[in-house]
Structure prediction request, 213 residues.
Amino acid sequence: MPSLNLIQHHPAEGPGAIAEWARSRGITLNVFRADLGQLPTMSAAPVILLGGPYESNAGPAWLEVERQWLAGSLDQGAAVFAICLGAQLLALSLGGSVRRMGHPETGWTTVSFTDGQALRMLEWHEDAIDLPPSAQLLASSDVCEQQMYRVGATRVGLQFHPEWNAESVAILNEHFAEESPLPRGPQDNAAYAAVFGWLQTTLDQWWVARAAV
Prediction:
């Protein structure tokens, strides 16, 4: 079975729907907890970077170790699919920057894609990305222009969270309690299903692209 490394940064932010995608595609997902000092060997192996409640250009000491690991892996040609904090780390490694927003973007948000699609996605972030010089902008929202970008065929960054399903949101709400701005009570199953369909297609395209390089 093919394998795929995934970097998790916080105990309450796991792979969510990405794990379901990997199982359905026969891919073994190797989860590493960067916050516990776990990182794969620096290499060209493809990797998914998840989010987390940390500043991408500051944060704890282990995050600096990850920044160095990511830069080295990119130098070796690694394909990267990065979400929220991960997308910010990827942008920094490729020559972009990250800045504080005027106010956070949270909850279900309409994201408009350059291919004409518009989908409601879950958000929870206070920082925005200024894209690397070679990046192509793929999606925006009313509050944050840089919602999705691509650098080449195999480096993709998302500011929103398509991996969060209803179970993910329940875990986040339990962990962060009143601090969490995410939906509570009955969940919008149709919205989660639409997001998962988008996630499967997008991950499939990235997975095929990484094999073609």
In short: The chain has five helices and nine strands. The chain has one domain: 3-212. The first strand starts at residue 3 and ends at 8.
